[in-house]
Amino acid sequence: MTPIDFTDLPKRNKAYAGANGNKISVIYEGKQFMLKFPPLPSKNKDMSYSNSCFSEYLGCQIYEQMDIPVQKTLLGIYRTKNTEKIVVACGDFTEPGIVLQDFASLKNQIIDSERNGYGTELSDIQHTFEEQTAIDPSLLSTRFWDMFIVDALIGNWDRHNGNWGFLYNTVTDEVQLAPVYDCGSCLYPQADDSIMEKVLSSQKERDFRVFEIPTSAITVNNKKVRYFDFISSLQNAECNLALKRIVPKINMSQIKSLIYETPFLSELQKEFYLTMLTERYTRILLFSLHALQEREKKDIS
């Protein structure tokens, strides 16, 4: 894609919540976008800014390749008096009368639940799927587990109940699933050049970032789950179905083209992203799918 200069675009007064970086509303080609600026890194103090804008862009583009509805993302620059920053524009899919509600707000409607909406215990989330009446439970479950599998590929550690959800029509009272949004915590956004070089030169470092970190935000018995451990255990039937739905859609050649066509990325960043996505695809998702297929063959025989 060709990078866009967002500096002089018309601005709107709409404000966006969230802790990860500054955000403003702009109009680009007649449509409203949320412009996200790179936040200061919370963990790696050696970085000036995190790579979350690249993470947001690439994560959403990969979701789009999986045919999962997702916010539109564009990369570009924004110039201030003293600096020029790389920013990501995220399509604003709300409109007058159509508001975004997160899954936590739906979870809060379950009045006999002992946990609040932002609790991420898997059993509570699945209980909400069945107890709520606003939307078809099977649609909720399918979206949740499809996101879980794609998030395992892109290494998203922050898919909590506050950053996926629904579009609510204030006129008709209808609810539908919102496009996937907020992928800024995938693809190791606080990895600087020195970390990327260390990871690329060490299988041990790559193993750590495949099997240990990042974990999912989802918890089982109050402990965040490791993607590999949970998916490869084949213990959850809905997760297994998502594994079979999503993995055949993953085209690593297309992902490679996406990465190498992304503006502003250094050659080191391109190699790092492609390497980690390839390893996560092969060692988490393909490994688990093959294990599931072998188990199903044995069950038939």
Biggest sheet details: 6 strands, mixed
Spans of at least 5 consecutive residues whose pLDDT stays below 50 are: none
Q: What's the overall geometry?
A: globular
Structural Rg: 20 Å
Provide the succession of SSEs.
EEEEHEEEHHHEEHHEEHHHH
Kindly name the structural category.
Answer: alpha+beta
- Give me the count of strands: 11
Q: Helical content, roughly?
A: 40-55%
Strand fraction: 15-25%
**How are the strands of the biggest sheet laid out side by side?**
1-5-6-4-3-2
How large is the count of helical segments?
10
Q: Ends: how far apart?
A: 50 Å
Oligomer: single chain
Any overview of this molecule?
Strand 5 and strand 6 (84-91) form a beta hairpin. By secondary structure, the protein is of the alpha+beta class. The model has no long low-confidence stretch (mean pLDDT 93). It is globular, with a radius of gyration of 20 Å. It is built from 10 helices and 11 strands. It has helices at residues 52-65, 103-107, 122-131, 137-154, 193-200, 203-212, 227-233, 237-246, 252-260, 267-300, and strands at 4-5, 11-12, 23-28, 31-36, 73-79, 84-91, 98-102, 165-169, 175-177, 219-220, 223-224. 42% of the residues lie in helices and 16% in strands. Strands 1-5-6-4-3-2 form a 6-stranded mixed sheet, with helices on one face. The chain has a 3-stranded antiparallel sheet with strand order 7-8-9.
Highlighted features:
301 residues, single chain, 42% helix, 3-stranded antiparallel sheet, alpha+beta, 11 strands, 10 helices
What is the gist of this entry?
The chain has 301 residues and is α+β, with helices and mostly antiparallel strands. Helix content is 42%, strand content 16%.
